[in-house]
Write a structure and sequence with these properties.
Layout lengths: L7 H10 L3 H19 L13 E6 L9 E8 L4 H5 L17 H5 L2 E8 L10 E6 L3 H25 L3 H19 L3 H22 L6 H9 L8 E7 L3 E8 L4 H18 L8 E2 L2 E2 L7 E8 L2 E2 L9 E9 L17 E9 L17
Parallel strand pairs: 1-3
Antiparallel strand pairs: 2-3, 2-9, 4-5, 6-12, 7-8, 9-10, 11-12
Helix pairs in contact: 5-6, 7-8
Length: about 375
């Protein structure tokens, strides 16, 4: 199936029926530009234009409505402030790709690369948890201090308003809260006394060069330790990473050139930018963030209905083996007979629950 450039009427119809219309149209235009340059024998020059990866694919076979492939769309990086309209903190899900928000991102579409489905397709979601300890004395002290700060503030506020009775009531509430928090049981105060004694002893031994902790002293003296009230607490989300490996064995001069363009495009778009960043004495003042990759598993012209989704990713590592068969062998034009390209991507933001609201298949 040969490539056909969309007409205005076809683009209009596509926008009406396909939520990924803008993405497909941008890709079609990039491919058309790629072919025009190829027909002019200027393939190498396309990388110097705005289309840094327009329409490259391996293998060079016809794509049908049942073809599965992995698409890498290259877009210009937008900072959090640019995407949020002025805020330095982005909203959860702002780096999500797919039908929602595709039109805005397509404006900075720099092209796409299509590769065969990788041999190892997997995802892994993780969140960070950590152990937390707080013995009963610390817990009681924390509750008491919190009550004092809270009720004292409320009492002062009532006093500033001229409500003396209200201020008096707040202080009475504080007294009740302290009794509830600390309790009437003398065991808590006995434990506090033991802790204070052990702490003072430990500090004194430290002056003499001893290295005995308060907990060790209590264990040696009484055989008891304070209940740590250990609990597993949520620390925060994590960022996902993805690794892909693709083997490329060009079967024609055209496919060899396509492999060269694909490798160069990945390398170029992960490189920090120095153009138009200003310089002093020939040394750049700033480095601009590299381009971003939007990955999609595709089936024909639509997103794959089952496999997981991606958020915007940075390409963090590219590794190319030009002797994939273990021996150096090339064609007459010096193109390696077999190559392996390994790619490592990392998402720009974590996965949140809101990301699943409009995600099909298995989600993220």
């Amino acid at each position: 199936m040969s490539f056909v450039e969309f007409t205005k009427e076809q683009e209009k119809r596509l926008r009406q029926v396909n939520p990924l219309a803008e993405e497909l149209i941008a890709q079609n235009r990039a491919t058309a530009e790629n072919i025009k340059n190829r027909n002019r024998n200027n393939i190498g020059k396309i990388l110097n234009k705005k289309i840094l990866g327009g329409g490259f694919r391996y293998p060079l076979e016809a794509l049908t409505e049942t073809t599965d492939y992995l698409q890498f769309t290259i877009v210009e990086y937008q900072s959090t402030k640019q995407r949020s309209g002025g805020s330095l903190v982005g909203s959860p899900g702002s780096r999500r790709i797919g039908p929602q928000g595709t039109k805005d991102k397509a404006k900075n579409n720099l092209g796409s690369i299509i590769l065969q489905m990788p041999a190892n397709i997997q995802d892994g979601n993780a969140v960070d948890y950590g152990e937390s300890k707080m013995n009963t004395l610390i817990g009681a002290a924390a509750g008491a201090i919190g009550s004092v700060i809270n009720k004292t503030g409320e009492a002062v506020n009532e006093g500033l308003k001229g409500d003396k009775e209200g201020a008096k009531n707040k202080m009475a509430e504080l007294s009740g809260d302290l009794k509830t928090t600390l309790g009437a049981d003398s065991s808590l105060f006995d434990a506090a006394a033991q802790f204070t004694t052990a702490k003072a002893t430990s500090s004194a031994l430290g002056v003499l060069g001893g290295n005995v902790s308060t907990a060790q002293l209590l264990a040696r003296e009484t055989g008891n330790i304070f209940n740590p009230n250990m609990e597993l607490l949520f620390n925060g989300p994590t960022l996902r990473s993805f690794n892909f490996s693709f083997k490329m064995t060009p079967r024609s001069p055209e496919e060899a050139q396509e492999c060269k363009n694909i490798i160069r495009s990945f390398k170029l778009n992960m490189a920090p930018k120095t153009k138009n960043t200003g310089s002093i004495g020939g040394s750049g003042v700033f480095l601009k963030t590299p381009n971003v990759f939007e990955l999609r598993y595709m089936k024909g012209g639509r997103e794959h209905p089952f496999l997981h989704k991606f958020k915007q990713c940075f390409l963090t590592n590219v590794s190319v083996n030009y002797t994939a068969e273990g021996v150096y062998t090339t064609y007459d034009d010096a193109t390696p007979v077999s190559m392996t390209i390994d790619l490592s991507f990392k998402e720009l933001e974590p996965i949140y629950d809101v990301d699943y609201d409009d995600a099909g298949g298995v989600g993220f």
